[in-house]
Each structure stands twice: as C-alpha cells, then as structure tokens.
Backbone:
C-alpha cells in the first residue's frame, strides 16, 4: 500500500517535473489552503437587503417544490405544524432532533401532537430539525451534524419540517462557510469541519425513468420550511 | 467490464435499429439541452464561473501531489483512512479488504463511476458479498445486469415499460395486479424495496464528486438522497474516488458546484450536496464509525503533462453527452466501456488503450457542441484529434482508409495534377448526373448513397470556369 | 458600399474550397459577386486545392502541414483570404495556428496569415460592414448553422441579418439549428449510418418549420442535407446562402435538383 502511494505520487511529480522538496510549490499550496479566497460570487443574492434575501430564499425553495410558511415567532410554530399535518392528513406524531432551537418551542399549546426527541427510525413519518443556515441564492438549507443534530433525521422521515430563523438566511454558500468557520472558532478556538454538512434544496427527487421528475425517491417526499421571523430571545 | 469499444460500429448499428433506445434518446434530446440553456440564462456570471472553474482545476493539476497529501493528512487527522490504488485491481483489493474486515454481507452503493471503472460489483459478488445499487437508475440496470449508459442518468436508455418488465421479473413478491406503468409507481416500488436494504447493510460505498483538501472532505451530489442513506445508515463508509477530484477550498468547491448542476440537469442546485469529513465524532448519535477513502489513479497520472491533461478537469456533469449528436443517435452502450459520450471518447483510449478504443475519438463530426457547453472548458474535439494522431502514427487505422488518405494528400499537394483529376471527375459526374441532378448510387460511395442521394456536380470546376472568365476579360 | 468604391480596393484572395470547386462553382461565383459588389478586388490563386482538413482530422499531421504551407504560400500578399465555408475558414483561421504550435519560429507567420482569413458572410458584415444586399428570393427559408462557422468563428447573426434584406424572402428559425447535420467530413464515410440518422433528424426539423428552402453556409452540410431530403422525396430546396444573397438563385437549380438550363 505504501508502495502505491509512492508510485502514484512519484508519477505525479515526474509528470510535473518536480522533486519532493519543491518549497515554492508547497508554499503556494499552503497559502491557497489558508486564505479561503472566494471566486466570483453571483450578484443574485448579494445585492439584496437581508429581508429581500429571505424572500429570495423562499421563492427559490418553492421553485424546487419545497413548501414555506413564515411565522412571527417560535410561539407560532406548533400551530403551523398542526396546520401542515392536517393539510397532508398526517398523524400528529413528530420526531425531533434534540436541537436547543427546537427545545424552545412552546409545544404545550398543542398537546395533541405527540413528540419524540432523538434519532429518526424507519417508521417515523414526520421529522423536524433545525438548520444551520439557509442559502438565499438557490433556496438551499445548510444543516450540520452533531450530538444535537443526527443526519439521518434529514433523510428517513417522509416529511421533513425544518425550522429556520430569518436571520439564519445568508446570501451565498460562501457566507454559509464563513458562518460555519466562525461558529467553530467560538467553541474551541480552532475550526474543525463538522462530520457532515448537508445542503438540501427541495425534497428528494429522481428523473431516472424517462427524465420525468418524481418526488420522494429515497429521501423525504415533502420538505416544509418554517421561517421564524423573530430574532431569538436570549 | 469486458470492453466492446472495438466493435463501436456494430454497436452503433444495433443501437440505431433499437426502437426503445431511440425513443429514450429522443427524450434526452428534448430535455437536457434546453434545461441547461435556461439555467445558464438565469446566471449572468456563468461564463466567468466557467473560466474560474477551469483555472481552479488547472491550478490543482499543477500541484496535484501536494493537494493529495494535504487532503490525506486532513482525513487522517479526522480519524479516517486513505488508501492509494495505482490501478483498478489495487482499488478492488482495498475495498474487499475493508468489507471483509467489517464482516460485511451486504453493501449498499451510491452512484459511482469509479465503482464501474474498477468493476467492484462483480468483484464483491465473486467473494460472497452482495452489492446493492441504490440510485434508482443504477438499481434498474443492476437488475438487468447492464452498465450505465450515461454518467448521470444510468438507465436513460430504457423506457418505462422496460423498467416495469424488469421489476416484475425481479421482484417476485410483487402482486401482478399492482399497476406499475407509470414512473411514479416504479419509483415507489423501488423505494419500498430498497428501504430495508439500506437499514440492513453493513458497508456503504459512495463515490465523490469532489474532494476538498482544506478540510479533508468528500462531497457527493445527488437528487434522490440514496447516497446519504448509504453512508449514514451503515457502520462503515467507503468513498471510492479518483485522484483528480480534488479541489483546494470550500470556496473553490462552491464555484464548481454552481457549474455542476446547471450544466448537468439544468437545476439551480442538486437536491442533496453532502460534505463528509471523517467518521462519527464523540457525542454523535449517528454516522459511520469508519470512514475510508480509496484514491484511484488507473492511468490518470500518466495523462498529466501530456496533450490529454485537460480531460482531468472533467467534473462528470454529462453536458457533453447531452449535447452530442453522436451520443444522441446511438446512446451510451455503443461506446463499449464505462465512459461514453465525448468525455469518454477522450478518456477511454487512455484507460483501456487506443487499440481497443480507437473508434471512439474517430466517431465525432468535430461539431464542437460538447466543448461549447463544457463547464470546465475542456477542448474535447482537439483531444480526440490528438488520439487520431496517435493512431495514425502507430498505423492503427484500416489500411484502405490510410491508402485513400495518402493518395488524396498526394493529389492535394500537386495543384496541376489535382486540377486535371478534378476536371475529369466533375465532367464525368456532371454529365452522368445532370438529368436527375443527383445520384441514387455511386461506386465507392455506398456508405453515402445507401441512405441518401449524392447531388451531382455542375460539370465544370470553379477553377476551370474562373480561368475561362479571366481569359474572356483579358 | 458606396464609400468603399472611393477607397483603394481591398485585395481579397478567394479560397474556393475543394467541394465548391468540384461540385458547385456557382457558389464561388456568388462569393465573387458579393465581394466585388462590396468593393473588393477578388483574385483566385491557382495553387489552391484543399485546406487540409481530411488529413488533419485523420491524424495525419505531416500531410496537413505540407498542404497548409502550400495554402499559405499561394495566398501571400492578400489583404484578406475569404472562403464561402465556415469549416474551411475555421481551418485556416483557428486550426493552422494550432497545427504549427510546435514550430515557434514559423508560428508568427502562420498567425499573421490566420488573422486575415474569414468566412464569406462574416467577412461581408463584420469587416466590410455590409448591412444589406440587393437580392430577391421568393420563398420561406430556414437556416442551418454549420458547426465550424458557428462555434469556431461565431457566425450566427451575420447570415440572418443579410437574409432579412432579401426581398421576398421570409426567414423561419430552425429548431436545433446549432446541432450538427451529420456531415463531418470523413465522418460521413467512416460512420455512414450515424451520419444518416443525424441528417434525417435535421431534415425532419427543417420540414417541421414549413420552410420551402433550407440554407446554410457550407457545401459539405448542404450536400448531406440535400441528399437526404431528395432521398426522402422532400420538396425542400437546398441552397448555399451566398447564392441567395448574390441574387443568383435563378442561375442554377437547387442542390441535388435536375439542371434547369445550360
């Protein structure tokens, strides 16, 4: 195995006419990796005000068959969820990730909804998660894995409800990365990439049969995004 | 897989007579190109993004050894493992060894062209491990024991009636009365059947659209979510990928992602873009306990620094397939190996030899539509021409063709003789063809006249008529 | 056009192309007329045969270079070199420099030659600034964009612009006008059945527009399309765009149709 590594790298260096100790090339690479230099960023979202970015996020998400509801505050989430479940004839049962954002939702106002907190199983029909960010340019959710946010909850339940605060909407993927790097810097002083970052743009789909788009190929058939306009209380 | 690229002509002939295939290809032609055009029109910066995409990859290729080392170091730092495979056999060995160590009986798979390139499914089966394709298209062709005919739409050569037949044959528990005529029903059937398999599998194998050196991440881009279930529900995640997939930073990959879906399907962004970095962390309640990355070379390093280097920029979007009139006429299987379409016509001769695959770079009109849509601005026709030069140098073309070419070149280099011959040719053909204005059959040109007429020449060459005109004016 | 008469005449070398020379001299004379009407002095060097594409596209670099050198020497001294073909003009203009990229001493000379080479219609509009032609054509025409002209030389708007000035002609866009017709030089000989499929698709698209005339700027494509249309018994008239622009469509029958006079 070590042989193959040397063989492949040796081939590359020979083709590039470079020895192992080419310092200028190594410095170039080190600097390039450290600087996080953005390339061209489309103006589509960056030119908009924060409010307009949230509107763009909504429009783009709806374009790819996600549904979006805007609510004023976390207090309104249970009602919005109840409406959604009723609208789609879904049982009043939810699996929630143990996300502190979701824990702040006053569910007791809707005691009819049965809640389970934890990791989603094969039989869960409806799941709710938070999100790390929403990317306005394509209506894309950005979710990260962690103890509070198991990844499979984004994929197993047939209905995925995502709670996103309006201030989590960023214009571009690059701004999402910036926020991610900042977050990690605050916690342990050093950026470590989360195990999984999921960018989700609409519900699961396939066009593998005659290029006809069908939703719910393997992941959720429906993606419902609740945008909470109110900034979080401290 | 056993290559049939040498039999491209026969494959193509069969494909042209296959009515189901022709129906399916009609769907491809009616959809993909227009969808890409519409998506590009919505992104005013698209041409600049293409330039930058090209530049990012060129930069990476110039520093490929260093970026791979940086990537490896990051993966190891996160608790993952990296395996280097100089060729397909080594990659198969690595995968098998990981599966055996995991005690795997079944392996779920996300779509991976590298898996096709190294023939991992057959290898696992031969060693008692069942690979289960989970991408709908891949699942369908696995049941049919076919190979993908398109790098992003593997079962695009089929129409839904054929898929129904396949399911009815393979899914023995299926109620014959259950309707399966529509894509929706077929999709639901596959979903229901595959869900327990995701949950039961021991190892998940995915490919990678990109590797990020900065963070040691592998990225998959899908629409179905099968890749995510594959890598999340199993204890062991194997990323099967190749050395040229690497990009420096998350910013760079963002640029390439903006190009990928728009070029591929005309989507603004694919449904799922998943960035994976190492195995499960402390405190995580899900995610794979092991994370292995197999890096395949298989002839790629030998392209670096040659006239074929630019093909290493390819991000496998499939735009060149979708815009190629040859692919659109014969489909992907005619190409006779893993990669079809224009990118395959450039890559395949490198991977399996120009003697086997020499037909592929020849089967192009050089219309240039592939290059005009390639998000990485890969000069595909130019590289096909380079393969033809290699063939010519090695005398690999049919001797009749070569002799004809040499005779023609001799004439073309001797203008007076050329004049003499063309004047006779124009006169004879012009005189015999003048009443109808065309020939229904011509000796030595049956390839042309079997299916179309040959318009008759006017009778005199331009050069002769011009000389007459000059004489009159003098 | 009137001001160009007062300037010293532009000296244009006509690269006739091998197919026009052999099959359809009328296109060459149409090109001459268009160029002369626009105030050029047109000459036709005698030492020209072919641009070398058959050898180039077959991987025979040595013969291609020999032919290219012959072309370049035949056309020394002209202000411009013009061909009634996007494919041959593309060869001269974009591929000759690529061909000699490995001869750095000679390359500058090749580049100087290449930048003076033009496809006929784009030369008329882009260089000579011709905006309209004095021509009449009774019919509904559709226009196929030949690949090399379109993608190597950017010829797209130019023929359409001039065609719109032809009295009596109405232009209908061809869906998939940018898709290859299947000619492809040696391709149609090496892979005739794929070529035939592409030609069939093209003719079906052209017929679906309802146009009675199919125009293009490359004789190779035109022979292919006309041959397919006549085999299918389609009544569509196939012509080189220069014949229509030069008002010479009355002088010669459509491509593949019986000669009406002479």
Residues:
């Amino acid at each position: 195995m070590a042989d193959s590594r040397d063989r492949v790298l040796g081939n590359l260096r020979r083709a590039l006419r470079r020895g192992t100790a080419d310092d200028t090339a190594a410095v170039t690479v080190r600097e390039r990796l450290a600087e996080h230099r953005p390339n061209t960023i489309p103006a589509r979202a960056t030119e908009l005000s924060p409010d307009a970015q949230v509107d763009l996020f909504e429009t783009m998400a709806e374009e790819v068959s996600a549904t979006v509801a805007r609510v004023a505050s976390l207090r309104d989430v249970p009602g919005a969820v109840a409406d959604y479940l009723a609208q789609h004839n879904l049982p009043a049962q939810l699996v929630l990730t143990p996300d502190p954002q979701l824990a702040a939702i006053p569910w007791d106002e809707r005691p009819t909804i049965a809640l389970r907190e934890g990791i989603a199983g094969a039989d869960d029909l409806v799941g709710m998660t938070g999100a790390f960010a929403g990317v306005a340019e394509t209506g894309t959710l950005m979710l990260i894995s962690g103890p509070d946010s198991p990844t499979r909850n984004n994929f197993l339940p047939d209905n995925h409800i995502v709670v996103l605060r309006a201030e989590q909407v960023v214009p571009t993927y690059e701004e999402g990365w910036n926020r991610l790097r900042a977050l990690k810097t605050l916690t342990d002083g050093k950026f470590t990439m989360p195990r999984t970052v999921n960018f989700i743009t609409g519900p699961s789909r396939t066009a593998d049969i005659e290029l006809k788009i069908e939703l719910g190929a393997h992941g959720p058939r429906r993606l419902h995004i609740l945008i909470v306009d109110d900034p979080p209380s401290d | 897989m056993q290559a049939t690229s040498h039999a491209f002509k026969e494959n193509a002939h069969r494909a042209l007579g296959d009515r189901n295939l022709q129906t399916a290809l009609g769907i491809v032609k009616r959809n993909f190109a227009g969808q890409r055009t519409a998506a590009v029109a919505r992104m005013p910066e698209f041409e600049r993004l293409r330039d930058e995409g090209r530049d990012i990859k060129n930069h990476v290729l110039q520093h490929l050894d260093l970026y791979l080392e940086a990537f490896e170091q990051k993966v190891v730092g996160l608790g993952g493992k990296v395996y280097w495979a100089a060729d397909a056999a080594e990659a198969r060995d690595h995968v098998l060894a990981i599966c055996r160590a995991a005690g795997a009986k079944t392996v779920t798979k996300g779509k991976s062209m590298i898996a096709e390139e190294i023939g991992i499914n057959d290898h696992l089966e031969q060693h008692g491990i069942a690979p289960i394709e989970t991408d709908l298209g891949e699942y369908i062709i696995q049941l049919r024991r076919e190979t993908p005919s398109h790098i992003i739409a593997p079962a695009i050569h089929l129409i839904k009636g054929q898929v129904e037949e396949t399911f009815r044959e393979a899914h023995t528990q299926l109620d014959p009365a259950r309707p399966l005529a529509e894509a929706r029903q077929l999709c639901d059937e596959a979903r229901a059947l595959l869900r327990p398999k995701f949950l039961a599998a021991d190892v998940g194998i995915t490919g990678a659209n990109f590797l990020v050196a900065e963070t040691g991440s592998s990225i998959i881009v899908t629409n179905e979510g099968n890749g995510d279930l594959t890598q999340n529900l199993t204890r062991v995640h194997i990323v099967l990928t190749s050395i040229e997939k690497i990009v420096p930073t998350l910013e760079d990959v963002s640029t390439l992602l903006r190009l990928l879906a728009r070029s591929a399907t005309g989507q603004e962004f694919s449904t799922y873009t998943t960035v994976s970095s190492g195995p499960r962390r402390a405190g995580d309640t899900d995610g794979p306990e092991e994370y292995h990355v197999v890096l395949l070379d298989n002839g790629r390093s030998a392209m670096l620094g040659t006239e074929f280097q630019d093909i290493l920029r390819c991000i496998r979007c499939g735009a060149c397939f979708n815009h190629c009139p040859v692919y659109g006429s014969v489909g992907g299987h005619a190409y006779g190996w893993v990669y079809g379409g224009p990118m395959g016509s450039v890559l395949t001769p490198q991977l399996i030899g120009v003697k086997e695959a020499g037909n592929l770079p020849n089967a192009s009109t050089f219309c240039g539509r592939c290059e005009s849509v390639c998000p990485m601005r890969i000069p595909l026709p130019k590289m096909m021409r380079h393969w033809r030069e290699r063939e010519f140098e090695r005398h690999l073309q049919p001797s009749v063709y070569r002799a004809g070419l040499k005779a023609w070149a001799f004439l073309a280099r001797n203008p007076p003789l050329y004049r003499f011959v063309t004047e006779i040719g124009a006169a004879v053909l012009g005189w015999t063809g003048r009443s109808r204005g065309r020939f229904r059959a011509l000796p030595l040109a049956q390839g042309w006249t079997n299916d179309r007429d040959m318009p008759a020449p006017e009778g005199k060459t331009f050069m002769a008529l011009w000389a007459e005109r000059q004489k009159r004016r003098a | 056009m009137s001001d160009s008469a007062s300037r010293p005449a532009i000296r244009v070398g006509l690269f006739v192309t091998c197919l026009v020379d052999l099959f359809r001299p009328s296109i060459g004379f149409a090109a001459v007329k268009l160029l002369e009407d626009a105030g050029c002095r047109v000459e036709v060097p005698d030492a020209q045969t072919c641009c070398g594409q058959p050898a180039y596209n077959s991987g025979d670099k040595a013969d291609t270079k020999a032919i290219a050198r012959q072309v370049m020497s035949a056309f020394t001294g002209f202000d411009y070199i013009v061909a009634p073909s996007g494919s041959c003009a593309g060869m001269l203009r974009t591929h000759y420099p690529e061909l000699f990229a490995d001869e750095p001493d000679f390359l500058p000379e090749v580049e100087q030659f290449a930048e003076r080479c033009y496809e006929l219609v784009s030369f008329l509009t882009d260089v000579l600034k011709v905006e309209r032609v004095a021509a009449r054509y009774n019919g509904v025409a559709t226009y196929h964009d030949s690949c090399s002209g379109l993608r190597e030389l950017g010829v797209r708007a130019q023929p359409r612009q001039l065609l719109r000035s032809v009295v009596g002609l109405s232009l209908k866009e061809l869906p998939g006008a940018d898709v290859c017709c299947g000619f492809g030089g040696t391709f149609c000989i090496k892979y005739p059945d794929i070529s035939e499929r592409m030609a069939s698709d093209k003719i079906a698209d052209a017929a679906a527009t309802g146009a009675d005339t199919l125009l293009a700027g490359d004789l190779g494509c035109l022979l292919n399309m006309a041959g397919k249309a006549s085999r299918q018994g389609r009544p569509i008239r196939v012509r080189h765009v220069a014949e229509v622009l030069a008002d010479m469509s009355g002088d010669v029958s459509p491509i593949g149709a019986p000669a009406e006079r002479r």
